[in-house]
């Protein structure tokens, strides 16, 4: 268990650092009213999560490497990738009601939570 925690932590450290570097670079060269750096890492992270899960379905993959990449690195690089993947699974399984419910609750409650969080110290 400790080995898994350490490998996830190390992957998370690297993912967070890569996120910071990518976001800063993109926003420096492509300044815009929306945060294109964040959009880019969310799209890139979602793509890589899809590639890795597709690969994992057909190959035997080390659980440590899986935890390092999927939970640690991509989890810190972007949590949007997990949300996207889980939503896509609902859609592919024909769970349309739960797909829409997941989208609605995730977006609306997370926005509400950020707003409430901002109000805490006002």
Helical proportion, percent range: over 70%
- Radius of gyration, in Å, reads 16 Å
Oligomer: single chain
The backbone outline, from C-alpha atoms, is globular
Distance separating the two termini: 41 Å
User: What does the main sheet amount to?
Assistant: none
Q: What is the H/E string?
A: HHHHH
In terms of structural class, how would the helical and strand content be classed?
Answer: mainly alpha
Q: Using DSSP, what is the number of strands?
A: 0
Membrane topology: Multi-pass membrane protein
Subcellular location: Cell membrane
Binding site for Na(+): 75, 78
Catalytic activity: fluoride(in) = fluoride(out)
Give the secondary structure arrangement, pairings included.
Elements: H1 2-29, H2 36-58, H3 63-77, H4 80-92, H5 96-120
Helix pairs in contact: 1-2, 1-3, 2-4, 4-5
Summarize the structure.
With 122 residues, the chain is an all-alpha fold. It is built from five helices and no strands.
